[in-house]
Amino acid sequence: MFKRIELVVLAACAFAAADAAWSADRSAPARTAAVAGIGRSATPAEIRAWDIDVRPDFQGLPRGSGTVAHGQDIWEGKCASCHGTFGESNEVFTPMIGGTTKDDIRTGRVAALTNNSAPQRTTMMKISTVSTLWDYIHRAMPWNAPRSLGTDEVYAVVAYILNMADVLPDDFTLSDRNMAEAQARLPNRNGMTRDHGLWDVHGKPDVRSVACMKDCPVTDKISSELPAAARGANGNPADQTRAFGETRAINLAASDQAVPASAPSPAPAKSDAKLDQLALAASSGCMACHAVNNKIVGPAFKEIAEKYKGTSDAESYLIAKIKAGGSGVWGAVPMPPQSHVADADVAAIARWISAIAP
After folding, report:
1. What is the pTM of this model?
2. Is the pLDDT reported for residue 27 higher than 60?
3. Residue 94: CB partners within 8 Å, gap ≥ 6?
């Protein structure tokens, strides 16, 4: 097992070195494959599609800008349902804002990271480069529709996050031209170390750590997993797994409660209308915040059905609610408007939810 780990680390170091060397000159012509008969050179369009990373020195940052005010509008519509209205988050996701002070902004080092005075480490406490925040939001957010934000929208959301952390003022417009100003005020900008092989491509890779590799017990048991008693605290983890990318989640509905949901479930048979509608809800992004029987971020579908059982206009009300979003009925956490879901699909989902109640 440890040989495999060492190989992975060596591969990561080699990749970092190659990536750094390649990134040093993005204008260099495409290289022809060194081994004949294996693969082909990537086209310029393919390179542009993958070449979206942004480095700490801001290389790779696209031109654009966004205001704090615009970022607030986007946040409330697409981000607050998971991360909280003020970045305080909810029971599923950890907080983004909090734990930093004006003195941290002045020194560039978050004191709470060393004296453990904060009850929980937030994103703004740990992050050392604004480019990391921009890059992650650009490639992975929102949760149910990654890569759907435009360049200016990403700038706006980053500006609003930094504004909530008192890094940027209310009237600030963040852009590729002034991101260095935001970086100079980041609370933990001096908290990152570069003294390791993955940063310095000429340094020695840390793959022979005596403290880590000496007298280690050898086992084939996976130890990084939730205790069985805690797995269902927020519903079935398999229902909360995004239906794209490599994922791992325990399916508590399975007989042995240990079926990995590593890929999207196959499409249900058309003869089972209930399964069809459940799959439709999952593919529409509903299952990221809801489950059938358990509360996650939002209420369980069964709770919604029970609340409006016997109401004559329940189905039309749910259609309007799904399309418009909102908050206050089930708590303070807002549901963003589901404008990406087709009207016919919204109607089918609302009809299915209404029929869940006995």
Report:
1. 0.53
2. no
3. 120, 121, 122, 123
